[in-house]
């Protein structure tokens, strides 16, 4: 006899997300010679990082995985801790409850539901942008403000929405005549939005966007992603 990979039987599509979480946790963190259905309740955060990275790359079908700064943001989110350092998180363990039971503070969804939404959006609409490293994605709104506040007017970057499942938003600098700066976040785009008009063309449409952070002109960064019929219409 041989044990199969884990499977979960569901009766409705709304159970799909939880089923995927169960399969992922079981597949990644169970011991080969374990008693069936027995899986660790807590796992090292470093092991979770490896699992999320492999899942992201396999699902999106990209060779560009998650970076150290992405893991730092994800740790802050799953542990709800914005004071710890990257090194502090490396010695922590994460529980199944933190992964897919506890609702994120101020939100209506779990960490996994949010991450799975990012996976789906990237796979369906953002694969080429992610693979070209045009999307920072996993970065907090607070850190974006810190990065962009000293940049020239029109500097922007792309991050995954914290408030919506499966959304990507554009943060950009508006600098007043007095030299003061303000960072604005455009309403997140969903997969449905991006199926109607691509991210590249939306960025092209927005005149207030000039340079992709730190200093790449947007036409240089996104030109290959513009719809050719729109380029020819100029």
TrEMBL record:
Give the record's GO CC terms.
Answer: cytoplasm; nucleus
**A Pfam family matched by this chain, by name?**
STAT_linker
Q: GO:BP terms for this protein?
A: cell surface receptor signaling pathway
Q: Which SMART domains match?
A: SH2
Question: Molecular function (GO) terms listed?
Answer: DNA binding; DNA-binding transcription factor activity
- Give the location in the cell: Cytoplasm; Nucleus
Domain named SH2 is located at 114-224
Q: What is its main location?
A: cytoplasm
Supply the name of the protein. Answer: STAT6 protein
Q: Which UniProt keywords apply?
A: Activator, Cytoplasm, DNA-binding, Nucleus, Phosphoprotein, SH2 domain, Transcription, Transcription regulation
Family, according to the entry, reads as follows:
Belongs to the transcription factor STAT family.
**InterPro entries (UniProt xref):** p53-like_TF_DNA-bd_sf, SH2, SH2_dom_sf, STAT, STAT_linker
PANTHER family according to UniProt: SIGNAL TRANSDUCER AND ACTIVATOR OF TRANSCRIPTION (PTHR11801)
């Amino acid at each position: 006899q041989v044990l199969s990979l884990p499977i979960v039987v569901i009766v409705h599509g709304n159970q799909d997300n939880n089923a995927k979480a169960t399969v992922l946790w079981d597949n990644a963190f169970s011991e080969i010679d374990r008693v069936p259905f027995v899986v660790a309740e807590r796992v090292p955060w470093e092991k979770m990082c490896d699992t999320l990275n492999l899942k992201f790359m396999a699902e999106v079908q990209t060779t560009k995985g998650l970076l150290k700064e992405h893991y730092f943001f994800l740790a802050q989110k799953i542990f709800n801790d914005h004071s710890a350092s990257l090194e502090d998180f490396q010695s922590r363990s994460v529980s199944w409850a933190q992964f897919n039971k506890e609702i994120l503070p101020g939100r209506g969804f779990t960490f996994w539901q949010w991450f799975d939404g990012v996976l789906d959006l990237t796979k369906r609409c953002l694969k080429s942008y992610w693979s070209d490293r045009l999307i920072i994605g996993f970065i907090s709104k607070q850190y974006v403000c810190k990065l962009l506040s000293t940049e020239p007017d029109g500097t922007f970057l792309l991050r995954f929405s914290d408030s919506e499942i499966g959304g990507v938003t554009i943060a950009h600098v508006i600098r007043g005549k007095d030299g003061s700066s303000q960072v604005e976040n455009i309403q997140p785009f969903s997969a449905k939005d991006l199926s109607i008009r691509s991210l590249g063309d939306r960025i092209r449409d927005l005149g207030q966007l000039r340079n992709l952070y730190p200093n790449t002109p947007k036409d240089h960064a996104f030109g290959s992603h513009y719809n050719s019929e729109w380029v020819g219409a100029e």
